[in-house]
Amino acid sequence: MRAMRRTNKLRLRPTEEQEKALLNLCEMSAVLWNKLNYIRRQRFFEGLFDWEEGVAELYDEFKPIIGAATAQQIIRKNNEAWRSFFALLKLKGEGKLPPHIHNVSPPRYWKDRKTGRRRLMTVIRNDSYRIEEEGKKKWLVLPKGLRVRVTGSIRWEGKQGRLEIYYDDLTGRWYAHQSVEVDQPRHTTSSRKAFVDLGVANIITAWIEDEKQSIAFSGKPLLSDWWYWNHKISEHQSELKRVNDRNTSKRLRKLGLLDLTLCFK
C-alpha cells in the first residue's frame, strides 16, 4: 500500500478564557511568520536570498512566547512556501507552468491587505497535541495547558501529522485542520456496476451490484448551513434597503460568495 495524506476538519469551541489564549498564540505566530517573511522578501528582491538569515534569532525570540515546537513549525511552513515559490519560478523559466497559474509571487504575509489586520493562524507539531474522546464529546489538547472542546467527525485515522488552527473572520469561528497519513488501498478492476442517485436530503445514494446494502451520504448538515446563510443574507439585504436604500455591499457580496461555496462543497 502507498501512503497518502488526508485532512480532518474540526471546529473549535473555546471558552472566553481559552479564546484569549488562542488569540495570543495566533497573533504571535503571525508576527513570527511576518518578520521572517519580510527578511526573505527583502533579500529576494535584492538578489541576496539566504535561507539561514534571521532564522536562529527569530526562533530564540519567539520560543519563550509560543513554544519551541510551534516556532519551529512556523519557520518550517515558511520554508515550504518559499520552496514552492522557487519551484514555480523554475517551471515559469522553462515555460512549463500549469495552465491555471498565471502569476508567480513570493509568499505573502499573514495579514489582510486591505485592513492590515494579521491573519490569526498557528501550526502545532504532530507530537505537541492530541484529540481526546469522552463519550460523544471530543477535546483538543494543546501546549500551555489548553484543552478545547471540538466538534466534527474524525473521518481519517492514521499517522498523525501537524495541526493548523485558524480564525475565520467571516464566520467568527475557530477551525483546526489535522493532517493524517493513511494507507492507500490498491485498486482492483471489477466488472460490477454501481448505480448512483443524486438528491437533496441524501446528496448521494449508491448501490453496487451484489451488495446487500446501499450507501447514502446525508445532505442535512449542508442544508442546515445553506438555510442559515440564506437567512443571514436576507436579513442583511433588508437592513441595507432600510438604512441606506442600497441593494448590495461588500459584506453582502462576501455572504453571497460563502453561500455559493456551501452549495458546491
Report on this structure.
This protein is an alpha+beta fold. The protein has 2 domains: 2-183, no CATH class; 193-265, no CATH class. Helices cover 41% and strands 26% of the residues. It is built from 5 helices and 10 strands; from the N terminus they run βαααβββββββββαα. It has a 7-stranded antiparallel sheet. Strands 8-9-10 form a 3-stranded antiparallel sheet, with no helix packed on it. α4 (220-244) runs antiparallel to α5 (250-263). Mean pLDDT is 85; it is low at 258-265.
Entry keywords:
single chain, 265 residues, alpha+beta, 2 domains, three-stranded antiparallel sheet, 10 strands, disordered C terminus
In short:
The chain is an alpha+beta fold and 265 residues long. It has helices spanning 16-46, 55-66, 68-93, 220-244, 250-263; strands at 2-12, 121-124, 130-134, 137-141, 147-151, 159-168, 173-184, 194-198, 202-208, 215-218. It has two domains: 2-183, no CATH class; 193-265, no CATH class.
